[in-house]
């Protein structure tokens, strides 16, 4: 029998090799290493007991058998209605997904054609760019500042002739920078999308992880516009292992997105949808998410405090108001690849700033440091290890540790 080699499809063969964010080969996690790179929630801040109750009610209820059948492609009507009520949108526009990444893929495949132009956050959530690889589009980076994506700059570029089909942004506690799009910019963005005829893909997984005292914009402009496709997930509040999220689709697209979904995976697990529906109906859920936000806030304070005490003036970092990450810029004319490798030798890893550049080599010297899953002890120790690597490379001392080593 002759043996013929398998060749991948042109799509698979043409996909760029993963590099940077998401490339596990770059991350070294020896036993005892501290991982400041991840995006997991802390398991002790997840509502495990509410899960147990909901699973028991679902599996012991009369409707359990029916949940083992195929379920409708857009999701269970009752769950769609519950989510629609929370989001303030029409239930017909809600489609249940298998998590945020699935929602992003559906959004991209629904609105973009090869060769189209899309404007994206810069810095950007890098795995969105990996979804764009499926289509092959022109990516135009747009700066994210303290109030979110720069709509003044966007307006200027649109006036100068830029014609995107879509714009991608993470509006709340952005990954990686942590900033939130102001209500003013949200309205400006919607007005530009409607005037120039593009779709805003608003990916909002961190919205519910607000720290005490932080009020998240209500997103009235996004909710009211037929030029916004909102992507969301329960991964950060109920855990990514659940694989459940939703998209809110412009009315004109709902039917077609459902057809597309029918040609891919068809539906989301009925059992998991029923479990989530029970949890959303449980009065204890929202308080538990609020309490988790307070837990993440404490961890964020430990991380930023450690950064300032170890690096002193050599670090710029804003205090996160929500979400899972601190976005820090380290000073120093050093090779940041070497810093990353040395830090990993010393037992800490993180996500390098360059990996979030929407194009080119921007954000050298930045690091996305995740506090969500790491204990307070390990946050302090992880930053101490990073600072040791940085001091070795810069030859500089800084902050409390350096002062104590100098005996002052
Ligand atoms: C901005 C952003 N979008 C989407 C996702 C993916 O969500 P999921 O894990 O539900 O696929 C993440 C996860 O980290 C994220 O940070």
From TrEMBL:
<dbReference type="GO" id="GO:1901605">
    <property type="term" value="P:alpha-amino acid metabolic process"/>
</dbReference>
<keyword id="KW-0663">Pyridoxal phosphate</keyword>
<dbReference type="InterPro" id="IPR015424">
    <property type="entry name" value="PyrdxlP-dep_Trfase"/>
</dbReference>
<dbReference type="InterPro" id="IPR004839">
    <property type="entry name" value="Aminotransferase_I/II_large"/>
</dbReference>
<keyword id="KW-0032">Aminotransferase</keyword>
<dbReference type="GO" id="GO:0030170">
    <property type="term" value="F:pyridoxal phosphate binding"/>
</dbReference>
<protein>
    <submittedName>
        <fullName>2-aminoadipate transaminase</fullName>
        <ecNumber>2.6.1.39</ecNumber>
    </submittedName>
</protein>
<dbReference type="InterPro" id="IPR050859">
    <property type="entry name" value="Class-I_PLP-dep_aminotransf"/>
</dbReference>
<dbReference type="InterPro" id="IPR015421">
    <property type="entry name" value="PyrdxlP-dep_Trfase_major"/>
</dbReference>
<keyword id="KW-0808">Transferase</keyword>
<feature type="domain" description="Aminotransferase class I/classII large">
    <location>
        <begin position="34"/>
        <end position="386"/>
    </location>
</feature>
<dbReference type="InterPro" id="IPR015422">
    <property type="entry name" value="PyrdxlP-dep_Trfase_small"/>
</dbReference>
<dbReference type="GO" id="GO:0047536">
    <property type="term" value="F:2-aminoadipate transaminase activity"/>
</dbReference>
<dbReference type="Pfam" id="PF00155">
    <property type="entry name" value="Aminotran_1_2"/>
</dbReference>
């Amino acid at each position: 029998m002759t043996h013929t080699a398998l060749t991948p499809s042109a799509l698979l063969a043409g996909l760029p090799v993963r590099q940077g964010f998401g490339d596990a080969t770059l991350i070294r996690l020896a036993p005892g290493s501290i991982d400041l790179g991840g995006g997991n929630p802390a398991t002790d801040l997840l509502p495990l007991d509410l899960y147990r109750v909901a699973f028991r009610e679902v599996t012991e209820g009369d409707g359990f058998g029916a949940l083992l059948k195929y379920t409708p492609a857009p999701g269970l009507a009752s769950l769609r209605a519950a989510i629609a009520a929370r989001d303030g949108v029409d239930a017909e526009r809600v489609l249940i997904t298998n998590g945020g990444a699935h929602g992003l893929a559906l959004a991209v495949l629904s609105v973009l054609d090869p060769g189209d132009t899309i404007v994206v956050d810069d810095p950007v959530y890098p795995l969105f760019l990996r979804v764009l690889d499926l289509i092959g589009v022109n990516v135009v980076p747009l700066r994210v500042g303290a109030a979110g994506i720069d709509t003044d700059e966007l307006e200027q570029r649109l006036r100068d002739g830029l014609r995107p089909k879509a714009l991608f942004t993470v509006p709340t506690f952005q990954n990686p920078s942590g900033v939130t799009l102001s209500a003013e910019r949200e309205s400006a963005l919607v007005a530009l999308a409607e005037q120039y005829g593009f779709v805003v893909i608003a990916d909002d997984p961190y919205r519910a992880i607000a720290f005490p005292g932080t009020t998240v914009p209500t997103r009235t402009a996004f909710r009211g516009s037929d030029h916004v496709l909102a992507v969301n997930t329960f991964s950060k509040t109920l855990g990514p292992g659940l694989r459940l999220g939703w998209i809110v689709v412009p009315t004109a697209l709902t039917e077609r997105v459902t057809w597309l979904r029918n040609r891919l995976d068809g539906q989301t697990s009925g059992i998991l949808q029923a479990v989530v529906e029970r949890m959303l109906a449980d009065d204890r859920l929202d308080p538990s998410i609020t309490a988790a936000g307070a837990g993440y806030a404490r961890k964020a304070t430990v991380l930023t405090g450690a950064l300032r005490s170890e690096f002193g003036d050599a670090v710029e970092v804003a205090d996160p108001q929500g979400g899972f990450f601190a976005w820090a810029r380290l000073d120093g004319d050093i090779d940041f690849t070497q810093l990353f490798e040395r830090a990993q030798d010393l037992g800490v890893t993180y996500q390098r700033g360059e990996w979030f550049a929407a194009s080119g080599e921007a954000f050298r010297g930045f690091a996305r440091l995740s506090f969500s899953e790491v204990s307070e002890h390990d946050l302090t120790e992880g930053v101490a290890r990073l600072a040791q690597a940085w001091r070795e490379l810069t030859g500089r001392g800084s902050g409390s540790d350096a002062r104590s080593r100098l005996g002052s």
